[in-house]
Sequence to fold (74 residues):
Amino acid sequence: MIKTLKIILIMAVISLASFGLITNTSSKILPFLLLLMALMAAVIGVTEFQNRKPASLGLFLAAGFALFVGVYIL
Fold:
């Protein structure tokens, strides 16, 4: 379940970033890209936390910061 969610979020981030680069509208897409990246970091943090790895704390902090910035930019 989490693995498929991680793959879906990664594909969404890649496709949205590619669309922004191709159409030259990256400034309008940036907040949504940041929100998707925050969700992606949170999901990866959950998987790392389940494996008891210390990198999960950094991922949760990065996800929280990216979520804050993404909402602030909107």
